[in-house]
Description:
D-Maltodextrin-Binding Protein, domain 2, 3-stranded antiparallel β-sheet, 12 strands, single chain, disordered C terminus, 11 helices, globular, alpha/beta
Amino acid sequence: xxLPRVGHIxxxxxxxxxxxxxxxxxxxxxxxxxxxxxxxxxxxxxxxxDISPMSSIEYLRNAxxxxxxxxxxxxxxxxxxxxxxxxSVPPTSLDGARVGLTSTSATSWVLAKILxxxxxxxxPVFVPEMPGASGLRGPSDxxxxxxxxxxxxxxxxxxxxxxxLRALWKPEPGTWTxxxxxxxxxxxxHCMVYAVWAARRxxxxxxxxxxxxxxxxxxxxxxxxxxxxxxxxxxxxxxxNLPASLxxxxxxxxxxxxxxxxxxxxxxxxxxxxxxxxxxxxxxxAWTAPGAVATAA
Length: 297
């Protein structure tokens, strides 16, 4: 029997899924392949994975070739705690300023673009950044632009994951540190969906029972991991160098389901991505058969 090849995001926000799989000893029913979101996105689209979590923006760009797994996702309905804009000036003052965008999260990149352009009404110069970059230009720095613009300090920066958790937990004095999940909900009234679980459509058509089984395993693993969140937070705290109480609050803040409200949020995000030029025109998604989601005709 060929076991399904299933991706797993090797980030803190997916820890309850993996913890639950370990608790239930379910990983022997699939080939679990960890990776960062960008790598998993490439692998499922290239046919090297059968089922995987996917960045929302990459799912939307390739929805015709994919099927959503019902009930599974990573979202927030208000604060997210792990996606932050850190700026030396208020966000409404970032028009024309250099804003660094992380290269590790395409969905967060698009989210930042939507909020900056539509919520705060500014058009910054977006600068892709390599991991480990640091330093912001202060609000009083009026020195002329350098000839080598690539070395010009940034005025704001997008942070994700542990750096964002730390920045929002203990904001640096003199900076604006803003939770972009919270700002998205304030702007749109919707929740924000960062990742979904998807199967390659061709695989799902050939192996529908396997997709149903993997969905059930992941759902049970998620529920078990969240029930054991205090123990999980205590285990990860020394590894992450963060308080266990902060990690427990983080796991309870994130939404790990996918229902009608998350679907509305994903549609709203798709609309915003189209407006800022990061997605072609996209038909709205709608609930179809029990528990299934598909692109509306």
